[in-house]
TrEMBL record, chains A, B:
Residues 26-293 form the Glycosyl-hydrolase 97 N-terminal domain. Keywords: Calcium, Hydrolase, Signal. Residues 311-508 form the Glycosyl-hydrolase 97 catalytic domain. GO terms for molecular function: carbohydrate binding; hydrolase activity. It comes from Flagellimonas zhangzhouensis. This is Glycosyl-hydrolase 97 C-terminal, oligomerisation. It comes from the Bacteria. Pfam families: GH97_C, GH97_N, Glyco_hydro_97.
Length: 706, 706
């Protein structure tokens, strides 16, 4: 009753302030959130959002600007119907941070009619205990069937000059370091935040990407993103940095159109996750909950994967994807590799892959990824080349059948690699053949890549046409019982709930950048608040040798992380797909540290975020899905910090052995990254572990029942 | 020897006029043509062409403007090598106007080096007795691998203000009536020549399409076109109407680029067919000869097709492609047709198709085309709809299995119809499935269509990306042993030699326009000089009822042709794929006239063009490939005209029965189109037949050995 009075009073207050013609309020199940829908006098729909009685989203307009249409879907609406309902259900993900997820919300569906045009638009709000999701729906109707979106005009009006963790809005890449700044500082910092990429296109000096992490001066954490991005353009946010209002900015097609729509259709969900505790942002499953349930009936073939790969050696430049240096250009089916002189640095050769299979088999790794196995790498990049790869023809030194049989004999899977070079049509033309080749040769997972500009020219990585492609590849893969890990694709929006064969994405600045000049040492304390909101990332952690020149004397890049931090990532960066990314020689040098990678599972019974502050630290404890064991990870920003981990999550009365992989005394991401200490102790649910993390450091703990 | 002296003298004359640094001459085998290659002082390559000692192409520049490149491929060249060779071979087409084709030419290959950039470009000229073909070649080299063509700068400098038979240059359609005018008049007539189309985009008020037919005041006939258009943009011609110089104008992609090139690569051939006798233009096989030999090993499944179809009734508006009028929009896989109310006008219903199968079987037709058989026609057009058809799901009233079995029992084939609506990606995604469906259900030929704008937006019908798609569909069809008849695709360039499963194209204004307001009565006297230069057209002749309102009272269109003219088209418009396009009820009304369509073959032993004048008349005699019978066709322009046909092509000493289908006394395309007379007489090789053709009329003669 108290809650009811509270919300009434808020609404009354709002009504005093606004010129409105219709209003409707919605509360979250726990009453912490209140969302108010108001229709302004001119028929403009708006919403605002309160958390614990304080506004976190001020009055924000909703609607669309249409192309070739005198009357857009911005105003002139009346409310036809307003419907409130509740939903509470628990579902079991195929893989995840926990074995069960509760989907609990109150819903408000506002049916609007634009009287002049007799067009209907529904805005559906779902208010969870962790935040708000809403989307636009266009039911089947006479006067709104086909239409083109010039721009979506969804506002997110901030209440002040918040601190943001942002990357530049870009149609083609998210591979940027995060900048922490006030909203008012974005414009001035923008250019400096844009670092080179193989394909990139910004649109505004105050344009940023989602998931965007914000923090108010009152320590309210707000995350803006979207859920269930299907057949629609990826949403960016453009900031009015005078009024601190974000407006949606969709990714355009080749002629500047932003959405090709056909009713009945709906947009993705626009999401606002918020809390006064940063760990709630990390623990939120709202993004998944706003996606459709799993559409794959038989999921027995979907499984988490811990893998090593023929990869880091090429990324650092010590090995090569290409087989030869002889060809100025390759034409598939015409270029004769049999007579080409090998360059001697081709990593994906049969013997080398066998060594990796052996290592995987000996160390409990599920699989080995091999990049550069197929012909075409001599000129794969930067040429807008359409017929760049055929995805089925190996280099002369890569024996598909032999490796298939050898991997099988060692009970190790090989992970396929499909680099498309952005040539989307070429990939789609070969997809059936490529997936069939995988079925025939024992590959059940593929890492796909979209490096460089999307073809045909004029398209980009994040528009509706491209989004539609990534989805096509995922759904077709499901037909072939293939798991997908798409790199350079659009950032995830929880679609892995619906298509759990999407076991990974890159779509952010991954470990590779540690070999391209390095990433910020606190990068991994931001990613879980941003990129990971939509789904797991194939971040490829586990680098043990931070001095890249050890592998390639010509590469002076440094991995800005301590070794202990690298171990912690297997816990802090949740993914059902985890790579041990370093070359196996480096793992052989540090077998005691590598033991953690051997031990850590990739699927979880439950997760508890113990503490978190974006840009500064994250500490999380997770319980193995298949045993009672627990694993704790801590990643730290640039300031040395000591954490006290209370083991209250352990089962009371039971005894455990904790093995702590921590930074050494003088460890430092830059000056002393390989300094680590491992110690073990007996612990119970009452224990507290005090562990110091170095700058750019962290710790990893495995806790096994005795 | 005389020839040698002649060409020397021409070259000497040229050398006096030009500032040149290198020169080379090439003669046609019969010596009628002389082509001179000259490198200007600034290293610009040029050519000129003489016919019977008179210039028909004045000094014309050759080269390319490149994108993002300081130095284009326009000048600064020196001649590295100059190589003359000869070629003479006779090959047998799988189908055609004759059973053997001679490929006889002299060749000059000029290897140019741009000294400053060290780039190599070869220009290869082939001079036949019927004209010149030349192309650019970019061999594998270090300094020219990937490059983007901003514009091809190939000139065709006319010697005067010739008469041209032209249609507006357009990136999306060739479905225009031809305009006959002086070159200097094009600009003034251009706007009037542009009639509405579902997708169209002109680029210049003096831009015209190829094949372009020209006639000089000295009655030299010149045809400009291209051969072997593969993975390159379709070439238009832009006229400098002060100097009468045409320059190539390639069709751009979404960002304005005109060619994405990777050496080794070559352009299509640019062709100039010329003669002082117009029939030589029609008899020229230069376009085929410049294409690669047949690449399909087993061609036993490729066969000419005479067919009827469920088509004209929808074109005229009396029937409908759509099954229902109930849906404002269709979403494949979601829209439930089983409960939809049929509109009662859906032509592609099982019973109606059976009637057509019966008629085909009774009248020696090979096949029945059925359009509108598959779901999606309710909103197939004009919406930039991506997922418009799936090509495998029939309407509820179209029983695939029953019709498959029924057609088989009657020894009649069904012709598949794939309308893509320009949604190229959607079509490619479904292609394997669609072709498999055809294999499974007894279809061995497909009519494909590309009505409306090409998707994704920014692409068009004739650029490199689209050309690449049509080729992909043809080659994949060959894998499935399927014959292709592509409508609204790029106009053909002789590729059917290489891929003889390409048995037809539309790519011009076909008979459908006779139901959309009518075409010019002399249209069919132009098409063989223009559109047919590149390959056969699925013109769909055989309309017997010229008053369209008889089928659909709401359609007042008139077919601008006499009935006899319609019969003649089966001979004058060569195609291995010929439709009897009218509804079968109209054929039942005129069984005596229909007898000619029953009799006329669709594959020929030899062809003799007896007389021709573009825009005015064409008379051709062809001998059946499978018998000794001959067939003669005459189409006439707008002026009444009498032809005397000498039957000297008949075998001497043999007796024949000629059946002459001619215009009636007062026949006229407009006022009295259905007036015709049929008479028979005995003839020999010595006979001459005098036959009058009405305005928009013509005659057809079948000559059978007695």
């Amino acid at each position: 009753m108290k809650q009811f009075i509270k919300s009434i009073s808020i609404l009354s207050f709002l009504l005093l302030l606004s010129t409105w013609v219709a209003a409707q309020e919605l509360n979250s199940p726990d009453g912490n959130f209140t969302m108010d829908f108001l229709l302004l006098e001119d028929g403009t729909p708006t919403y605002q959002l309160n958390f614990k009685d304080k506004a976190i989203i001020k009055s924000s307009k909703l609607g669309f600007e249409l192309k070739d249409d005198a009357q857009s879907l911005l105003d002139g609406f009346t409310v036809l119907e307003s419907k409130i309902s509740a939903f509470d259900e628990t579902w079991k993900p195929v893989w995840g941070e926990e074995s069960e997820i509760r989907n609990h919300y109150n819903e408000l569906a506002i049916t609007l009619k634009q009287n002049e045009t007799e067009r209907i638009m529904v805005i559906r709000f779902r208010l969870f205990n962790d935040g708000l999701g809403f989307r636009y729906e266009f039911p089947q109707q006479k006067n709104l069937v086909y239409f083109v979106i010039k721009e979506e005009r969804t506002e997110f009006a901030m209440t002040g000059d918040h601190t943001a963790f942002w990357i530049p809005g870009d149609y083609d890449t998210q591979e940027y370091d995060y900048t922490e700044s006030r909203l008012s500082e974005i414009r001035g910092l923008f250019e400096g935040a844009v670092t080179p990429n193989a394909s990139q296109q910004q649109f505004s000096k105050t344009g940023v990407q989602t998931a965007l992490m914000l923090k108010t001066d009152e320590s309210i954490y707000i995350n803006l993103h979207e859920a269930a991005l299907v057949n629609y353009a990826c949403m960016h946010l453009d900031l009015d940095d005078t009024n601190f209002v974000f407006t949606s900015w969709l990714t355009p097609d080749a002629v500047g159109d932003k959405g090709q729509m056909q009713a009945p259709r709906h947009t993705p969900w626009r999401t606002i996750i918020a809390s006064d505790d940063a760990t709630d942002i990390l623990a939120s499953r709202m993004t998944y909950n706003l996606n459709e349930p799993n559409k794959i009936e038989d999921t027995s073939w979907i499984h988490p994967v811990k893998y090593i790969g023929i990869w880091w050696e090429m990324i650092t430049g010590s090995g090569s994807w290409a087989y030869t240096d002889e060809f100025p250009s390759v034409q598939l089916g015409k270029t004769d590799y049999s007579k080409a002189k090998p360059n001697g640095r081709h990593s994906a050769n049969t013997q080398h892959v066998m060594d990796y299979i052996d290592f995987a088999s000996e160390n409990g790794m599920d699989a080995v990824l091999v990049e550069g196995w197929n012909v075409g790498w001599e000129d794969w990049f930067g040429h807008h080349k359409d017929d760049v790869f055929d995805f089925v023809t190996p280099y002369p030194d890569f024996d598909v059948a032999e490796l298939r049989d050898y991997a099988k004999s060692k009970d190790v899977k090989l992970v396929m690699h499909h680099e498309t070079s952005g040539a989307v049509r070429n990939y789609e033309r070969h997809l059936d053949q490529a997936y069939t080749f995988m079925n025939d040769n024992g590959y059940d997972a593929v890492k796909s890549g979209y490096v460089g500009d999307i073809l045909p020219k004029g398209q980009n990585h994040y528009n509706q046409w491209a989004v539609n492609h990534y989805q096509f590849a995922i759904e077709k893969a499901a037909d072939y019982q293939i798991m997908v890990n798409a790199h350079e694709a659009v950032r995830p929006t929880g679609l892995a709930r619906t298509w759990p064969n999407l076991i990974g994405n890159e779509s952010a600045r991954g470990t590779e950048y540690q070999a391209f000049g390095g990433s910020k040492p606190n990068h991994v304390t931001v990613l879980p608040f941003t990129r990971l909101i939509g789904g797991p990332m194939d971040y490829t952690p586990g680098i043990f040798e931070m001095d890249v020149s050890k592998l390639n004397p010509d590469n002076q890049s440094h991995v800005n992380s301590t070794l202990a931090n690298q171990l912690a990532l297997y816990v802090t960066m949740y993914s059902p797909l985890q790579m041990a990314a370093d070359v196996i020689e480096n793992y052989k040098r540090f077998p005691d540290a590598f033991q953690f990678i051997r031990d850590v599972p990739v699927d979880w019974q439950q997760s508890q975020y113990l503490e978190a502050e974006p840009g500064h630290y994250i500490t999380v404890a997770r319980q193995d899905k298949n045993s009672g064991d627990w694993f704790v990870g801590n990643v730290n920003g640039t300031t040395e910090r000591t954490t006290t981990v209370s083991l209250g999550f352990l089962e009371k009365g039971k005894k455990y052995e904790a093995t702590i992989y921590r930074d050494g005394e003088n460890a430092h991401y830059n000056t002393n990254p390989q300094s680590y200490k491992i110690d073990s102790k007996r612990v119970t649910a009452k224990s507290k572990l005090k562990v110091r993390s170095a700058p750019g450091g962290g710790f990893a703990i495995s806790i096994k029942e005795l």
